[in-house]
Specification:
It is built from 11 helices and 19 strands. The protein is α+β, with helices and mostly antiparallel strands and about 425 residues long. The structure holds ligand DP6. Ligand DP6 binds next to helix 4. It catalyses: (R)-5-diphosphomevalonate + ATP = isopentenyl diphosphate + ADP + phosphate + CO2.
């Protein structure tokens, strides 16, 4: 390493999107390498609204690998972090920065330590796939720092070892995680199906019910399912392979009715195998605390509202999908459907009167404008959706949703070259 006497810090900052599965990954055939028992397909969400930003830095002055998540130092001792760090280091190449007088050879990387600072612009572990964006960003940014000469497909196989769903965040648009057959996991990688421009009519609304950390982690939940559910094998062997083929076709052809039917069915089946687990996992209606009883009911109400509306229109307007946390993801066929969906959601789930509309609907606020809603009083004036023909008046559940995020399919990881966006101080390599 040249110029060892001179202090230097070399940094890279990247931004990586999160993703939501429309055909779910649930169950592993190898816990350490994180190899799935079925293929899965996801849509990448626009990083403008949901993403992780990560800065990685290297300096001869660092005496250990360290990481800060949302400003708080966390341990990198866990096997998943260690696996990612080891795999990236093993692929590092020479790096030279003439301006700064830095020269790092391939072998130097084994002895140099890194600092990592990561920030999510959305709640961590609330079922919004923060670990997906987080590990994807860690691997992507370290690969750039260490000049790893591999494409995003190969990098996805490393991100996968941090968290399965993370491999799908290495690409934009619609992405398939091919489960692979090899024991070493070398063919268990993400492949891009179509980019984010292919089906840019879609609008995605996320109802964030709770920003608490989820109770049952995906990792232990899916382990229990594989060990105890008799339905999971049928799902992985018989159901998902056929759905994957149909889903790929639906995405290629922008066939929304088929896409919506497959997305809703697959979400419902994922929750069915969770219920078929011993002890059962209730991501959608955990009944152990009062707050969660409400949470579950809200989600069922959202499903009911979407199903009723889709049925009354004669063709699906919106698809719903729920991950391992209490949030609903609603994918609308176009802006018009998203506008009508948001009106329905706001009718049933108005904010508390002291809530600012600006913080109740975040992300792409133009949908709010299209819905003719500028003010809380416009929400209160919304008429009941016409498909509600029950004799009992339409129910309202004020204040039961934390907020809504309006977003769309988005791009894959990018490097942020503007140093002002770095999360680490360029002189000290410590959080800013
Ligand atoms: C329900 O990727 O969080 O979101 O691989 O154990 O880290 P680990 O699990 P994780 O599981 C995600 C499960 C899911 C479905 C999906 O994203 O496909």
């Amino acid at each position: 390493m040249a110029e060892q006497s001179k202090k230097w810090v070399l940094m890279v900052t990247a931004q990586t999107p999160t993703n939501i599965a429309v055909i779910k990954y649930w169950g592993k055939r190898d816990e350490n390498l994180i190899l799935a028992i079925n293929d899965s397909i996801s849509v990448t969400l626009d990083p403008a609204h949901l993403c992780t930003t990560t800065t990685v830095a290297v300096s001869p002055d660092f005496d250990q690998d360290r990481m800060w998540l949302n400003g708080k130092e966390i341990s990198l001792a866990g096997g998943r972090y260690q696996n990612c760090l080891r795999e990236i280091r093993a692929r590092a190449s020479d790096v030279e920065d003439e301006k700064k007088g830095i020269k790092i050879t391939k072998n130097d990387w084994q002895n140099l330590h890194v600092h990592v600072a990561s920030y999510n612009n959305f709640p961590t572990a609330a079922g919004l796939a923060s670990s997906a964006a987080g590990f994807a960003c860690l691997v992507f940014s370290l690969a750039k720092l260490m000049n790893v000469q591999e494409d995003n497909g190969r990098l996805s196989a490393i991100a996968r070892q941090g968290s399965g769903s993370a491999c799908r965040s290495l690409f934009g648009g619609f992405v398939k995680w091919v489960m692979g057959k090899e024991e070493d996991g070398s063919d268990s990688i993400a492949v891009p199906l179509v980019d984010e421009k292919h089906w840019d009519e879609l609008v995605i609304i996320i109802a964030v019910v709770s920003s608490r950390q989820k109770e049952t982690s995906s990792t232990s939940g899916m382990r229990d399912t594989v060990e105890t559910s008799s339905l999971i094998e049928h799902r992985a062997k018989e159901v998902v392979p056929k759905r994957i083929i149909k889903m790929e076709e639906a995405i290629q052809n922008r066939d929304f009715p088929t896409f919506a039917q497959l997305t809703c069915s697959d979400s419902n089946q994922f929750h069915a195998v969770c219920m078929d687990t011993t002890p059962p996992i209730f991501y959608m209606n955990d009944t152990s605390h009062r707050q969660k009883v409400l949470t579950g009911c809200q989600l069922f109400r959202i499903i009911g509202c979407v199903e009723k509306w889709n049925c009354s229109e004669g063709t699906p307007q919106v698809a719903y999908t729920f991950d391992a946390g209490p949030n609903a993801v609603l994918i609308s066929r176009n802006r018009k459907a998203a506008t009508l969906m948001l009106q329905r959601l706001l009718f049933h789930f108005p904010p508390n009167s002291d809530t600012d509309l600006n913080s109740y609907v975040i992300g792409d606020k133009s949908i709010l404008k299209d819905a003719g809603i500028q003010d809380i009083k416009d929400v209160d004036a919304l008429p009941p959706p016409p498909e509600i023909k029950d004799k009992i008046p339409a129910q309202k559940y004020r204040g039961e949703i934390s907020y809504f995020i309006c977003t769309r399919p988005g791009r894959g990881p990018v490097l942020l070259t503007d140093e002002s966006q770095a999360l680490l101080n360029p002189e000290t390599g410590l959080p800013k």
